[in-house]
Structures are given as structure tokens and as C-alpha cells.
TrEMBL record:
Protein name per UniProt: ATP-dependent RNA helicase
Chief localisation class: nucleus
Gene: DBP4
Acidic residues: bias regions: 727-737
Native organism taxonomy: Eukaryota, Fungi, Dikarya, Ascomycota, Pezizomycotina
Bias (Basic residues) ranges: 10-24
Ranges spanned by the short sequence motif Q motif, renumbered to the chain: 48-76
Biased composition (Basic and acidic residues): 518-533, 708-723, 745-770
Domain (Helicase C-terminal) ranges: 279-438
Length: 801
């Protein structure tokens, strides 16, 4: 998105004769403005209106056209310092006008330096979210409408190639961190060496762990000699953060530091103790009671936002619903923010992507369904209401395990909050309705499972364990409140327990287990003392579900004495089978059957079979003996054969045969052999080509002869189709020069009937009657051949009549 801030300048407009005078006047204004700024003392300024500041005429006109007249506290303190070129850290309450506090110095500094499009990029403004960047860009367009600077918006979700083409002509850029770093790495024409100012809005969010590596990479590209401005509702003052940005003696401006509260005085803040499984019931009841309100509901994750939005759309609480989260496409996010801003009554479910900097007009309620991660996040969330000295209300729903910790954090930030109770008469339960919807709609059930897992993960990753403790949360009841039939499995929690069990010391089996093992005849446990270490084989032997397995498997585990007699044959197995259980022979169905009938199953004697392949096969069991009967299984023992070709004399040769080096040298040098081979191949190709051409000629000749024969047959058939009736064989039909020719009705040619084409003037009525028509050349067509004299007379009368 690119905008030309000067609406009056038009490229290609003819030069005005007074252009040099205007430039001279602008230069004089700039000199006078610089003198006023130099004489400005920021600590003694007590200005309340923008007109009291030394601002340029384009900026003053833009503020007046945008209806900005009186300055807020943060603007009155920051703008004079920024006009002097100092690095500033501004902290003020939400909705106190921080955007204008850095946009006005941006425009003024570029104007005093007489910045043009040839100078390149002068100011870089970084925002943590796309919605906030769009909002800053809109304010910049309004205030800077009379300036001649080119401003651009660089955020994710737009065409990268289109941004690359226009990026080199921009003077002011409003961007998000990730997209800006992408352009710095991939856009060759993007130059930031002449940058004058760097502005970070919501700096505490940009400089936290989520954006730390990205911001560090961006700062490495920027020049060291620049002015830096940082703004946020909760500002950081850590030396490490300031050193990363190369600030030079920054001025810290805090408007609410001496105030009694970190939030606006017009904001009413309350919290409700609501168990986790009852939060959705409380939210639905609240929406039903406040239909004619503008409500913003915050949740922890995007999957929760989607589930609550989809389920409440089915429940229809009576208020228009919207949802906003980071996984949506950029166009959808812009559409949602525009709809919520323009709506009079609406409810928006959102994640913390809407918690910072966004100016939604006339928001009545801010509901925090999930506990914020810290006090700063709480301040930013409730800052979406009670903006610019308007009234607003905020409600925080807390689980009993979260109450003590979060209230302590809010008290440290000077946030006044009171506890209220919900009227039980207005409380409605939607648990059964959600269960019915999840049962009927598998997709909604799947979204609910994902919402449950995402909420548990959001609690699990929080650093402040005094507030967020998974062990104290009723997760099973919470899953049921979402309409789920059972609690979904959570891999990262199961992984911790499995890892803990794996790393724990291996305990000894209990005494009851030892006694049970003695009764079963376990030789490892019978008569032995407790060992210090249990192996995996011990645990395998002590499994309690052995009864469901086959009888021969039980006997193998228990070590039956009778099995030793059947398994040992002709000294092929060790006499002592207790030493290694892996050598126990597998018992089959034939063994069990033999035991039932009282006899032993016949075991084949081991022998070697040498006639099958190159290597002998050792046959020592029935399974190996069956192998001899399968030709397919014996193929792997026979080895791979060799393919042979036969010459003209009938001698067999391998497909590829290599000559000895001596034989090769006897035939002559390599170049001579090569040229000889090429000549032979040319001759062979020439002969083959001549043969191919002869074949083509013969085929053409055959096709030509077939065509002539077909044409001759067609002519012969045409001659047979007509019969001359005026021949000497006819009786008394010679009527003069003219002769009458009658065509037969139908002639069969090679089994196919030849149908006469019907004329457009013929009549299909009166089937079987004779039809006689006059034609040119005295040729008459009849449906039947005349046989008697009466027929000929009728035909003649037809000709005459």
C-alpha cells in the first residue's frame, strides 16, 4: 500500500512561473522554523494546543483538517523533545494519543531537512501487528496530507513483488518486523543507509522474546547515527534492551508513573470468580443480557476463538458475532476490524492480536475469558475501551486457582479492580446444547478438541506458575463443558510423565508379585532373594495378561519340564535351556495335537540337500522341508542366471563380451578402429535407409492400386444402375428420335442396397402407386418396371398429359 501524502502535487504538470519564488519562500520558512526549534526548551514548555508548537504550515494544516487541536499529556511532553532530536522512551496510558506523539516529529524532521524522493528512506516505523500498522498509516495519511513525502505500508499478506517495485521510492515506511526483515534480505534496491529516525510502537511487545531475533537483525542493517523513539503503555527501561537499539542518552517520559492508576480513570474494572468449566456458561449469559452493546472478548488462542465463535453462531445469543485471530488471511482480518469499528452493537472474539494499539470506537465492554499472562497484557486488553476520556467497563473471569496470583500482579501495577458476583437467576447452562452440537457435527467436535489442547498448552507454557498451574485445573470437567465426550489426549503432558518414569530408578517387585511368581513356577523368582536391578525381561515375564495367550506360549514362559524333552533332538540344542530363553523351540499346532492324542509329533531328521543350488540347504524342520516343494521359494537358492544370445552359426554368447587389451591392440590403433567403426556404421545406416525408402515406395504403390480398383468398381456399378429401354429387343417403343429410359427400382451391389435420393418435390403419400414425373432429357423415373402394354400406355399418357 503506497500513498502520496501531498494531494496537490501532480507529476507532469507544467512549471509555474513563480516556482522559484515558492522555493525561496519555503527555504526561508525552514530557516525560521529551525531557529524556533533551536530556541525551544522542552522542560519549560507549557503548551496545550498544537498551535503553540513550532510546526510547519503543512503539518498545522493537516492537524486542523483532521480536527486535532488540543494536545494530550504525552504529546505535550514528547513532541518538544523529539523536535530537538533526542531519543525518547514514552510510556502513557492506553488511548492517550501516542500515535500523534511520534508522527508529528517524523513529519517535522523530514520537512526541516527538506527531504525529497531522491534522498530515499528517512523514517522507519515498526509495529507488532498488521492491524496497528494499518491504523498508524491511516493517521499518517490524514495528518500529512499536505506534505510531499511518499509513505508506504509494508505488512505481511500482501504481494511481495509489488512492494519491491515501489519500496525504493518511499520516504516513510510503516511496517511489521517480519516483513521488513524479509525486504532487507531479498530486495536489492532497498537502501536504509540514509535513515534518520526509527520509531517502535508498542516497544515492549516488539522487544520481547517473540521478536527479539528479528528486531536485532533489523537494527544491524540500520545506521548508528539516527534518532530513536519508543512508545508503549507499559514501557521497558532495561539497560540490555536499550543497548540493543543503540540509544544515545534517551529521555524517559512517563505520564502515569506518578498517577494513582495505570489505567484510565473512566474505566470500571471488575473480576468474577468463575470455575473453568463454567466460563462459557457465564459468557453466554452475559451476551444474552447485553444484546445492545459493543463487546470485545479476549481468549488465549486462535483455536479457542474459532470454537467459541462457531458454537455461539449455532446458539444464536441475539447479537452479531465476529472473530479475529492471527491465522486468518489479511483480507479477512481487515474486513473484521472494519465491520467491528463500524458496528453499533456487536461482539468480537479475539486473541491478543487485537490487544495492542487498535482504536475501536465506542467499545462498551472488554471481557477477558482467559486470564492474561501478566499485568501488562491486562492493561493493553482493557485499553480497547475507555479511550480518549470516554467511559468503559472491563470484566475478568478468573478460576479460583488464578485469583491470588493475578491480583498481586495487578496491585503492583496500580490497577484498581473490584470483585463482583453473577446473578444466578440469569445464569444459563449451554453444556447440553454443546454436547448435542458436537455429536451431530464432527467438524465442530474436532475444533473443540483442538481448542481444549490449545488452552492447556497456553497454560503449560506460561512462566508464572504461581498463576498458571495445570494440576489445579479441572481439565476433565472443562472438556465436558466444551461438549466433548471425553478428555482429549495431550502429548506434551504424557511425554513428561513417560520421561519421568523412564528416568526414575527401577524399583523391585513387590512381595505379592514374588509370591505369585513362585506359585506360577517362575524359576527366576522361585527361591531367590530380591535383586537390586530389574531387567526388561523380568518385566516381560511378570505380565499379567498371559492367560489370553496361547497355551504353548504360557508353557514357554513358565519353563515346563516336558517341553525340554520334545525340544531337544539329536544334540542339536543345548542340554540346559534355562540359561537362555531365546533358544526355546517354538511350539506349533502339531505339537499340541500330538500331546492331546498322547503321542509325540514327528520331527524330521536334519539333512543337507545339495541338488537345488550352488550352496546346500540344511533341512531340520517341517517348515524347511515344505520349502523344497515350492519352486518360487527355491529360486533364491538357485542363484541368478545369465542371458545369452546366439549368432548366425548357432553359437551362444553373452550379451556383452569384453575383449582383452592384447586382442584390442592387435587390431590396430584406437583412432583407426574408431574411424573403421564409423564407416561401417555409415554403410549399414545407408543400406537400412535404402531398404526403408523401398518399403515406403511399395506401400504407396499398393495404396494407389487399391484406390484405382475401388474407383473402377464404382464406375461398373454405376453403369449397371441404368437400362436402355429403346433397344431393338423392345416391342414397338421406337417413337422417333426421343427415347424413353426407365431406371430400375433398386440394384443390390455387394450385398448393400443402393437407395435413390428423394427429391424435394416428391410426395410420400399413396404408397405403392405409380409416380411419373417429367425431367430434362425425356427421362422418366418409375417406382415399378412396366411389364404389360397397358403399363406402357399409362406411361405414355402421363408423358403426353
Amino acid at each position: 500500500m503506497v500513498s502520496k501524502l501531498d494531494g496537490r502535487a501532480r507529476p507532469g504538470k507544467p512549471r509555474h512561473p513563480r516556482k522559484p519564488l515558492k522555493r525561496k519562500r519555503d527555504a526561508e520558512d525552514v530557516v525560521a522554523l529551525e531557529q524556533q526549534v533551536a530556541n525551544l526548551d522542552p522542560r519549560e514548555v507549557s503548551a496545550k494546543d498544537f498551535a503553540d508548537l513550532p510546526l510547519s504550515q503543512p503539518t498545522a494544516s493537516g492537524l486542523e483538517a483532521s480536527h486535532f487541536k488540543t494536545m494530550t499529556d504525552v504529546q505535550a511532553k514528547v513532541i518538544p523533545l523529539a523536535l530537538k532530536g533526542a531519543d525518547c522512551l514514552g510510556a502513557a496510558k492506553t488511548g492517550s494519543g501516542k500515535t500523534l506523539a511520534f508522527l508529528i516529529p517524523v513529519l517535522e524532521n523530514l520537512y526541516r531537512k527538506r527531504w525529497t524522493s531522491m534522498d530515499g528512506l528517512g523514517v522507519l516505523i515498526i509495529s507488532p501487528t498488521r492491524e496497528l500498522a494499518i491504523q498508524i498509516f491511516d493517521v499518517l495519511r490524514k495528518v500529512g496530507r499536505y506534505h510531499s513525502f511518499a509513505a508506504g505500508l509494508v505488512i505481511g499478506g500482501k504481494s511481495l513483488r509489488e512492494e519491491q517495485e515501489r519500496l525504493g521510492r518511499m520516504n516513510i515506511l510503516v511496517c511489521t518486523p517480519g516483513r521488513m526483515l524479509q525486504h532487507m534480505d531479498q530486495t536489492a534496491s532497498f537502501d536504509v543507509n540514509n535513515l534518520q529516525m526509527l520509531v517502535l510502537d508498542e516497544a515492549d511487545r516488539i522487544m520481547d522474546m517473540g521478536f527479539q531475533t528479528t528486531v536485532d537483525a533489523i537494527v544491524e542493517h540500520l545506521p548508528k547515527e539516527r534518532q530513536t523513539l519508543l512508545f508503549s503503555a507499559t514501557q521497558t527501561r532495561k539497560v540490555s534492551d536499550l543497548a540493543r537499539l543503540s540509544l544515545r542518552e534517551p529521555e524517559y517520559v512517563s505520564v502515569h508513573e506518578a498517577a494513582s492508576s495505570s489505567t484510565p480513570s473512566t474505566l470500571q474494572q471488575h473480576y468474577v470468580i468463575t470455575p473453568l468449566p463454567e466460563k462459557l456458561d457465564t459468557l453466554y449469559s452475559f451476551l444474552r443480557s447485553n444484546i445492545k452493546s459493543k463487546i470485545l472478548v479476549f481468549l488465549s488462542s486462535g483455536k479457542q476463538v474459532r470454537f467459541v465463535y462457531e458454537s455461539f453462531c449455532h446458539l444464536q445469543p441475539g447479537i452479531p458475532l465476529l472473530h479475529l485471530h492471527g491465522k486468518q488471511k489479511q483480507t479477512a482480518r481487515l474486513d473484521v476490524t472494519a465491520k467491528f469499528s463500524a458496528a453499533k452493537y456487536s461482539c468480537l472474539f479475539a486473541t491478543d492480536v487485537a490487544a495492542r494499539g487498535l482504536d475501536f470506537p465506542a467499545v462498551d465492554w472488554v471481557i477477558q475469558l482467559d486470564c492474561p499472562e501478566d499485568a501488562e497484557t491486562y492493561i493493553h486488553r482493557v485499553g480497547r475501551t475507555a479511550r480518549f476520556e470516554r467511559n468503559g467497563r472491563a470484566v475478568l473471569l478468573l478460576d479460583p486457582s488464578e485469583e491470588e496470583g493475578i491480583l498481586k500482579r495487578l496491585a503492583q501495577k496500580k490497577v484498581p479492580i473490584e470483585r463482583i458476583k453473577v446473578r444466578q437467576s440469569k445464569q444459563q447452562s449451554i453444556k447440553n446444547q454443546l454436547q448435542n452440537m458436537c455429536f451431530k457435527d464432527p467438524e465442530l467436535k474436532y475444533i473443540g478438541q483442538k481448542a481444549f489442547v490449545s488452552y492447556v498448552r497456553s497454560v503449560h507454557v506460561q512462566k508464572d506458575k504461581e498463576i498458571f498451574n495445570l494440576r489445579e485445573l479441572p481439565l476433565e470437567e472443562f472438556a465436558a463443558s466444551l461438549g466433548l465426550a471425553g478428555t482429549p489426549k495431550i502429548k506434551f503432558l504424557n511425554g513428561d510423565s513417560v520421561k519421568r518414569l523412564k528416568n526414575a530408578p527401577r524399583d523391585l517387585p513387590s512381595s505379592s508379585e514374588d509370591e505369585g511368581a513362585e506359585e506360577k513356577g517362575d524359576e527366576k523368582s522361585r527361591g531367590k532373594k530380591k535383586e537390586a536391578v530389574r531387567t526388561k525381561y523380568d518385566r516381560m515375564f511378570e505380565r499379567r495378561n498371559q492367560d489370553v495367550l496361547a497355551d504353548h506360549y504360557k508353557k514357554m514362559i513358565e519353563g515346563d519340564d516336558d517341553d525340554e524333552v520334545a525340544d531337544v533332538d539329536d544334540g542339536l540344542r543345548d542340554a540346559d535351556e534355562d540359561d537362555d530363553f531365546l533358544t526355546v523351540k517354538r511350539r506349533g499346532y502339531a505339537d499340541d495335537l500330538a500331546e492331546q492324542i498322547g503321542g509325540a509329533a514327528p520331527v524330521p531328521k536334519p539333512r543337507l540337500v545339495t541338488a537345488v543350488g550352488a550352496e546346500p540347504i540344511f533341512i531340520d524342520s517341517k517348515r524347511r522341508e515344505k520349502l523344497l516343494k515350492s519352486k518360487k521359494k527355491l529360486l533364491k537358492f538357485k542363484g541368478k542366471g545369465t542371458k545369452l544370445v546366439f549368432d548366425d552359426d548357432g553359437n551362444a554368447h553373452a550379451i556383452y563380451e569384453l575383449e582383452d587389451e592384447g586382442q584390442f591392440r592387435e587390431q590396430g590403433p584406437a583412432e583407426i578402429q574408431r574411424s573403421k567403426f564409423v564407416e561401417e556404421e555409415k554403410e549399414r545406416v545407408k543400406v537400412a535407409d535404402a531398404v526403408d525408402k523401398q518399403l515406403v515406395r511399395e506401400k504407396k504403390r499398393e495404396r494407389k492400386e487399391k484406390r484405382k480398383a475401388r474407383e473402377m468398381a464404382e464406375r461398373e456399378i454405376g453403369d449397371e444402375m441404368h437400362v436402355e429401354l429403346g433397344t431393338p429387343d423392345d416391342e414397338g417403343l421406337d417413337d422417333g428420335d426421343d427415347s424413353v429410359k426407365v431406371a430400375p427400382r433398386r440394384v443390390e451391389v455387394e450385398g448393400h442396397p443402393q437407395k435413390r435420393a428423394k427429391k424435394w418435390f416428391e410426395d410420400d403419400s399413396e404408397d405403392g402407386a405409380k409416380r411419373v414425373k417429367k425431367r430434362t432429357g425425356r427421362i422418366i423415373e418409375a417406382t415399378e418396371e412396366p411389364e404389360t402394354l397397358e403399363d406402357l400406355e399409362a406411361l405414355a399418357s402421363g408423358l403426353l398429359g
